[in-house]
Write a sequence for this structure.
């Protein structure tokens, strides 16, 4: 029976793929019919994923009970002496990831039924969700780096399709392209690192790469710096995928996608794939201290960066997005400090509570739309919310559970994982701990700011003056697009028209339907309790998941648990969290401190945070504008110089002196081209010999 | 009839040409009979190709197979000599496949249908002949002959500037052909025996200086066709003015002739010169990739944008050819096949879009995805294939070229690092121009002017069928590359082993770094 499970484990990603293909073919060939059978399609897709989930849990169970890791592969590509195989591996890490991904995907799919109920793209959305699940599951069972890269790009593609799901919205169109391109920048590094490692070690398998690389470095066959360079290039992949500084800019924009995918892809699973890859690459990374510290500091800085921006965001989804960036920073930092199990532990707890927080925000938006209409600029703005606890009690309670979890209040899940990371970071480098600890305080502040603004106090959704103010703030370029987008939980266009011409919107938000609240409640359970499996004095999680290199040590270490140390560390992080909560409460609940006054006082700092450290502006100026200009100049060169020269008209212009204008008018790019050619020529000469 | 001795290749080449001669006498007033006729001929010939290779081609051998040789004009030693090996066989299949689909794509052509399908069928045979002939003189002849139908198709059915584009095309290519002729004659008459037979010429031992000259000549001729920077500028013009079926043939097959001939002649016949020239090829490849990607990004005309994208993708072929590894060579061939499919699909989509919007300027489009959902979906899939998304053939080909050049032992590390780094920049640039193109066509709010004036009808079944036919092999190869690589692998491995003998830096004994044994898969 068990062998059967393992032999057919490849079904786990294949099942959702089959479901997606079936529905996709239906959409292409029998569009009308497929779209009419909405529920049937949804049920089909959810069922297939449900089977995959059952499968995953069976495997997890078997792995927990000590079944040895299982690998199977087949030859995929070959040329001469080169052979590359693909296949799957089932080990503790994989089985854990399988369970996380399938449960969250399953719950998100149920939620989707309520959230996308009236959207014309309901079926297409399910097909994409299923395709994403397949890619993500394929990623976590990959036994080698090439296969990871393949699925890595595929999840990126699904992310692209889903962010741009409402493709009639200009903002979504920009966001999906940005996400793909920024991720390609990371993949560029990953590809180079992969090629470098293969060149050095002749393998794409994680263990073999690690072993051989270490051998080569210690025997002097490969410079240590080069090994570190390869490791850091590979790390660029996770930097983009897990939205780490400096490639984090795509994630907040990705919130243009429907909320269920923000929960599934951009909070719980895909963005955590970066952390997963670092875990898989541990045999390569761990023996290279310089690479490890780059990873740790990138994570720490990102954690702070994300939190510092989250405190001023008014869009509920953007706030959560920056919070995700910050939490991913914790995980990456943990990986960089060698806290392998702690990082993955936080990945798991975060997956559950952050998915729930996002789904809660979706529920809030859904409720708000009944009041302010289908304008994401209004429905997602927390300045219009407030007092929602009265109207949507289930959403409020589950959001509070998630907030407590992310703030690290015991005994909620986030406490155990975050505390473990901070404790281990302290041992490696107290400076890292300070960053992480301070960030924990900011986290508590902005999360409770979010909670109070949304659920406590008076409902402000009907306040016309705020609405007018927000509408004015919408930049003029969007002005023309103010016709209602068929946005989150959009309704039928007719329904909307009816809505506009008939009576006004309702004056009170309403609780979401059962298909939406049920997943919230189900996710609240792990958000509350799952941390207990990683209690430092009885760490079942670490017994199950440990770094490939430290198999034996962990068990020995588990015995000697130091209560005093634990209490000091835990006390420090709970303490700062409580301070954060108190400040948030004073500002946004009791109103004893006026937040706008503080904003006035620290205007530059406030603007700096509100404008996301001006990263978008900077990147736009430096990369986007310059690449556009370079491309334009290249095209001009192509027309006038290259084409002209071959057409001989170029010759004429050169003779008549027209061509000289090109050389004299300071066209830097043209000179650059000449220099480029010269360099290349030099390389030829040097390499032939 | 004795099946083994049946002249399969001759039949495959001559059947569509003979069939095309019958077109003038087919009674047909509105052009509807003749298109069915052409399609059936295309399908039959494709079936013939598949059957011939299925029964008569041995995959485990890298030698020429299905060889036929008849003396044609004894006075000038011209022989009708055909045969296929792993290099030409997949390209013959590709030609049959793409040309048949192009006939189907030409369904809406109403202007002079008889002449059009006559030319299509003539091209069908001519293109296959280019890949199959094994005689230098004959090769030159069919290379030239195949230009005529392309020229006519460009100049009669093109856009406004079609005459300029067609003339430019013919001047460039014919100019390049002169070099083929001179080089071929030199090679044929060099030494004691005068022969046009390709394998006999390949066996001749040319002095290095002559080899370099010959190589240079061929490089110019095939560089025009592939195309290689700076000889590429005819391509955007030709594409900018051509109709969809012509596009599919240009991008799908004609460009591959350059790559094919480069491997067959420059690499196979002039290996010593190839060793000297290889770094140049690699640099030209890198320039192709980056330069064309940038120009494509700046281009506002859809057809020209995709044309530049073709140039960019051909850069990988050059790098693969010059990598001196069987992996790189295999990747180069796969890139040709893959781009044949992907390029054809993209250009077909361009045509399908133009039929609806009647404009190619991106500024005049916008938001058309709301009305044309299927077109949107197909465009997206083809673009993703083109930007080398894993799971599709382009990714595998590019990955093989990358790994091939990275592990090549013919170059020093600095050079390789530079090349890999710059070529990988293409990995970033490709999605930038393709995705921003998609965004400008389909995303955002509808362009009111366009929507009011044009009936934006969604894709019809014929169009879905054509794209599906192209996507099936694209995805099939992407999921399991051995589907494609195993049909030519023996030949490319042999060829690489042969060329490697001439590389001085390759120490014969030393095994490549890192034992590839570890990568071997346990049997299922």
């Amino acid at each position: 029976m068990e062998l059967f499970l393992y032999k057919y484990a490849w079904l786990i990603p294949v099942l959702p793929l089959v479901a997606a293909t079936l529905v996709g073919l239906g959409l292409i060939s029998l569009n009308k019919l497929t779209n009419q059978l909405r529920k049937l399609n949804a049920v089909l897709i959810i069922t297939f994923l449900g089977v995959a989930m059952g499968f995953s849990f069976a495997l997890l169970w078997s792995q927990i009970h000590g079944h040895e890791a299982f690998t199977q592969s087949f030859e995929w590509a070959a040329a001469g002496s080169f052979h590359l195989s693909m296949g799957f591996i089932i080990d503790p890490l994989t089985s854990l990831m399988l369970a996380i991904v399938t449960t969250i995907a399953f719950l998100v799919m149920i939620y989707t039924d309520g959230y996308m109920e009236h959207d014309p793209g309901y079926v297409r959305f399910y097909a994409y969700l299923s395709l994403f699940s397949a890619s993500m599951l394929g990623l976590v069972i990959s036994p080698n780096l090439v296969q990871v890269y393949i699925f890595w790009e595929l999840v990126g593609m699904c992310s692209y399709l889903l962010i741009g799901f409402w493709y009639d919205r200009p903002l979504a169109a920009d966001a999906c392209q940005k996400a793909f391109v920024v991720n390609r920048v990371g993949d560029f590094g990953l590809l180079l690192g992969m090629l470098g490692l293969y060149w050095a070690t002749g393998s794409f398998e994680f263990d073999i790469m690690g072993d051989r690389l270490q051998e080569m470095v210690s025997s002097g066959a490969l410079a240590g710096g080069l090994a570190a360079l390869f490791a850091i290039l590979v790390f660029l992949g996770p930097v983009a995928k897990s939205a780490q500084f400096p490639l984090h800019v795509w994630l907040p924009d990705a919130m243009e996608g429907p909320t269920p995918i923000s929960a599934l892809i951009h909070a719980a699973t895909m963005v955590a794939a970066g952390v997963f890859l670092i875990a898989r690459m541990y045999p390569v990374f761990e023996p290279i201290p310089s690479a490890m510290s780059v990873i740790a500091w990138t994570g720490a800085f990102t954690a702070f960066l994300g939190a510092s921006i989250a405190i001023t965001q008014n869009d509920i989804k953007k706030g959560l997005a920056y919070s995700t960036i910050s939490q991913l920073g914790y995980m990456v930092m943990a990986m960089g400090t060698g806290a392998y199990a702690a990082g993955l532990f936080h990945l798991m707890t975060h997956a559950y509570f952050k998915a729930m927080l996002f789904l809660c925000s979706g529920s809030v938006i859904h409720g708000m739309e009944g009041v302010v209409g289908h304008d994401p600029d209004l429905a997602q703005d927390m300045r219009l919310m407030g007092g929602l606890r009265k109207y949507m009690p289930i959403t409020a309670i589950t959001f509070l559970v998630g907030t407590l979890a992310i703030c690290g209040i015991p005994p909620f899940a986030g406490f155990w994982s975050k505390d473990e990371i901070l404790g281990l970071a302290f041992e490696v480098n107290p400076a890292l701990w300070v960053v992480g600890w301070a960030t924990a305080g900011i986290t508590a502040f902005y999360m409770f700011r979010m909670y109070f603004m949304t659920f406590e106090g008076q409902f402000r959704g009907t306040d016309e003056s705020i609405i007018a103010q927000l509408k004015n703030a919408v930049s003029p370029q969007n002005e023309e697009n103010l016709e209602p987008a068929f946005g989150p939980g959009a309704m039928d266009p007719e329904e909307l028209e009816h809505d506009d011409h008939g009576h006004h919107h309702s004056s009170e938000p309403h609780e979401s339907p059962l298909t939406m609240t049920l997943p919230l409640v189900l996710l609240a359970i792990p958000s509350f309790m799952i941390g207990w499996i990683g209690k430092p004095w009885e760490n079942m999680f670490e017994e199950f998941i440990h770094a490939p290199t430290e198999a034996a040590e962990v068990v020995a270490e588990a015995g000697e648990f130091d209560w005093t140390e634990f209490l000091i560390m835990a006390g420090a992080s709970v303490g700062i969290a409580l301070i954060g909560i108190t400040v948030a409460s004073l500002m946004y609940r009791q109103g004893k401190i006026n937040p706008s006054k503080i904003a006035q006082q620290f205007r530059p700092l406030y603007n700096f945070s509100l404008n996301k450290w001006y990263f978008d502006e900077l990147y736009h100026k430096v990369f986007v504008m310059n690449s556009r200009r370079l491309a334009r100049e290249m095209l001009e060169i192509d027309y006038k110089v290259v084409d002209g020269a071959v057409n001989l008209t170029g010759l004429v212009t050169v003779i008549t002196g027209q061509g000289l204008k090109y050389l004299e008018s300071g066209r830097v790019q043209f000179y650059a081209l000449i220099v480029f050619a010269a360099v290349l020529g030099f390389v030829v000469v040097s390499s032939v010999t | 009839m004795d099946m083994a001795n049946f002249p399969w290749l001759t039949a495959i080449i001559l059947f569509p040409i003979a069939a095309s001669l019958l077109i003038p006498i087919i009674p047909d007033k509105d052009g509807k009979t003749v298109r069915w006729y052409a399609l059936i001929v295309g399908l039959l010939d494709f079936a013939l190709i598949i059957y011939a290779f299925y029964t008569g081609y041995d995959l485990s051998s890298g030698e020429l197979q299905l060889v036929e040789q008849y003396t044609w004009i004894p006075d000038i030693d011209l022989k009708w000599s055909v045969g296929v090996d792993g290099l030409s066989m997949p390209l013959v299949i590709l030609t049959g496949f793409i040309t048949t689909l192009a006939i189907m794509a030409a369904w809406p052509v109403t202007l002079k249908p008889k002449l059009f399908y006559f030319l299509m069928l003539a091209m069908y045979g001519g293109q296959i002949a280019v890949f199959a002939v094994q005689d230098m003189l004959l090769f030159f002849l069919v290379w030239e002959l195949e230009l005529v139908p392309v020229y006519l198709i460009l100049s009669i059915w093109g856009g406004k500037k079609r005459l300029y584009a067609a003339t430019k095309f013919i001047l460039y290519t014919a100019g390049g052909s002169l070099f083929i002729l001179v080089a071929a004659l030199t090679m044929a008459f060099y030494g004691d025996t005068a022969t046009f037979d390709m394998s006999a010429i390949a066996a001749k031992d040319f002095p290095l200086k002559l080899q370099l000259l010959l190589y240079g000549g061929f490089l110019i001729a095939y560089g025009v066709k592939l195309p290689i920077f700076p000889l590429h500028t005819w391509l955007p013009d030709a594409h900018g003015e051509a109709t969809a079926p012509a596009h599919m043939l240009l991008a799908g097959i004609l460009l591959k002739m350059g790559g094919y001939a480069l491997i067959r002649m420059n690499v196979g016949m002039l290996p010593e010169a190839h060793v000297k020239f290889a770094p140049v090829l690699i640099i030209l490849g890198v320039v192709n990739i980056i330069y064309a990607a940038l120009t494509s990004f700046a281009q506002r005309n859809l057809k020209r944008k995709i044309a530049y994208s073709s140039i960019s993708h051909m850069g990988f072929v050059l790098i693969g050819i010059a990598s001196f590894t069987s992996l790189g060579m295999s990747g180069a061939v796969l890139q040709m096949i893959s781009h044949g499919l992907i390029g054809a699909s993209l250009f077909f989509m361009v045509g399908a879009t133009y039929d609806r919007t009647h404009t190619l300027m991106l500024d005049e489009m916008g938001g058309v995805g709301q009305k044309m959902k299927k077109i949107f979906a197909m465009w997206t899939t083809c673009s993703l294939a083109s930007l080398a998304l894993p799971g599709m053939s382009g990714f595998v080909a590019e990955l093989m070229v990358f790994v091939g050049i990275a592990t090549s032992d013919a170059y020093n590390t600095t050079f390789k690092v530079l090349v890999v780094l710059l070529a990988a920049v293409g990995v970033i640039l490709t999605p930038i121009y393709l995705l921003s193109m998609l965004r400008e066509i389909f995303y955002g709010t509808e362009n009111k002017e366009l929507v009011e004036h044009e009936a934006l009808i969604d894709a019809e079944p014929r169009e879905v069928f054509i794209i599906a036919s192209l996507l099936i092999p694209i995805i099939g190869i992407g999921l399991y590359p051995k589907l494609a690589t195993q049909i030519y692998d023996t030949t490319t491995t042999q060829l690489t082993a042969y060329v490697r003998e001439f590389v001085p830096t390759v120490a014969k004994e030393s095994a490549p770094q890192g034992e590839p044994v570890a990568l071997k898969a346990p049997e299922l």
Q: What stands out?
A: Chain A touches chain B through 78 residues (CB under 8 Å). Residues 475-504, 657-669 of chain A have pLDDT under 50 and may be disordered. Residues 132 and 636 of chain A are 41 Å apart (CA to CA). The longest helix of chain A spans residues 340-372.
